[in-house]
Please model this.
Amino acid sequence: MKKTIRDLDIDGKTLIIRCDLNVPIKDGVISDDNRIRESLKTINYALDHNCKIIILSHLGRIKSEEDKKGKSLLPVAIRLEELLGKKVLFVNETRGSVLEEAVSNMNNKDIVLVENTRYEDYPDNKESGCDIELGKYWSSLADVFVNDAFGTSHRKHASNVGIAKNIPSCIGFLVEKELLMLKESLDTPKCPYIVIMGGAKINDKIKVIDKLLKKADYLLVGGGIANTFLTALGYDLKKSIYDEDSIEYCKNVIKKYKDKIVLPVDGYCSSEYKDGIEVDYCKLDNVLDGKMVLDIGKESIELFSNYIKDAKTVFWNGPVGVSEFKNFEYGTKKLCEILDKSNAKVIVGGGDSAAAAIKFGYKNKFDHISTGGGASLELIEGKALPAIDIIEDK
Model:
């Protein structure tokens, strides 16, 4: 087990806490502050121990100077200050004299939030490329490093691995909770164990599907992944999206686990991939010309419900339709309702499924909603998470 923030003497020390404050922001307004809220426990613990706190986080991806527009962490600093009820000093640079002066002037219980770490990705990819010197620079600002960003723990970045190489390190409460809930619940799940897999791309989830099917009693499939499986079975879904490169894989999985895979039978379709347009209901063996399936239907929900009602453990990753569109949220919304009514331990694997669960009012209804989609899948697949592996063992 990795050292947690409880295991180190942090009293009065300067901490760098790597948080995942990568929240959706439009026109300076945060639409979902869940990741900020999930970071508060570790930050408050550090405040209780009279620490000076430097917070690092990324926001989106930066591949050009243009990408920096709208990707500043300033709105996050404002929201964090509101939630903590305490001043948060925002430094609008990632290194340099202004940051160094701000850190040198800190008193105990002061908080500094540094600008988006991925500003360092243009033009030299220093953050995402885990630049050695950048990691050393950030680590020079503090005494202890705390990784509390589960959502980026499968990435080897300067702001996690790069810092942990240089100063004493530990994990925060959020990462600790993620590891306990995901590993303990899904390594030895109570059965019947149901996996629900959705989302658009199957090639991102191929290996974890194979891993999950070895333990799961059933795999319920929706979204673009279901389209790929159905196309592999010979269904003509007309304009529906599917992954051509994964057809052969799906054929092999169906052959190997034919009694475990449950596919949708009906859905809602449209002629265009956008919201606010006419929606048609269809059986999936009879999709109309020029249409694309964008959600699962009532019969599919009833089918899925028959499996979920007896489940003891459910792991859900990925919406079963384009749930960000009002016209195609039916399946995912109903799925949340069914999971809430079930007696199963429900683990939501982050990403778009977590966003959907929170959006539809189920934030506190499930046993665990992960803050890291990609990280949760890689953990379940059995891959090493570099930003956690680097942390000191107890």
